[in-house]
Automatic annotation (TrEMBL):
Keywords: Signal. This is Bacteriophage spanin2 family protein. NCBIfam families: spanin2_1. It comes from the Bacteria.
């Protein structure tokens, strides 16, 4: 009687150990997937953030900034990392709020705000 009980206990330990290893492997795979997603989100966000705008056409530049803001807002929703999400959201707000008057009257100030947001995004993505 003791042999089947001992074998059952060994089998139970093996199954429990196997479940723990499987759970650990699943968590590792999930972390890798989150990292890959974060890298993809960062690459896309930085690509949109650094897209050239035509300074000779302020209205077109504003339209491009607003379109990028909408796209970045959607992209932020897919960011698993909350720091990256916040940086993308901040950049999107800066782009969404720009006006023709900003680009004509104070282009350096607006470009400095945008540069600060891009730097924050770069830092969040690197962290």
């Amino acid at each position: 009687m003791r042999v089947p009980v001992a074998l059952s206990a060994v089998a139970l330990v093996a199954v429990v150990s196997g479940c723990g290893a499987a759970q650990e492997a699943a968590q590792t795979a999930s972390a890798i997937a989150d990292t890959a997603t974060t890298v993809q989100v960062c690459a896309e966000a930085l690509s949109q953030a650094t897209a050239a705008v035509d300074p000779a056409s302020p209205q077109q530049a504003v339209d491009q900034a607003h379109a990028a803001a909408a796209s970045l807002t959607d992209l932020a929703a897919t960011a698993a990392d909350t720091t990256v999400n916040g940086a993308i959201t901040g950049l999107a707000a800066t782009l969404r709020e720009v006006t023709v008057e900003d680009l004509i009257g104070q282009p350096a100030a607006w470009l400095a705000r945008k540069a600060d947001q891009v730097a924050a995004l770069t830092s969040a993505c690197a962290g």
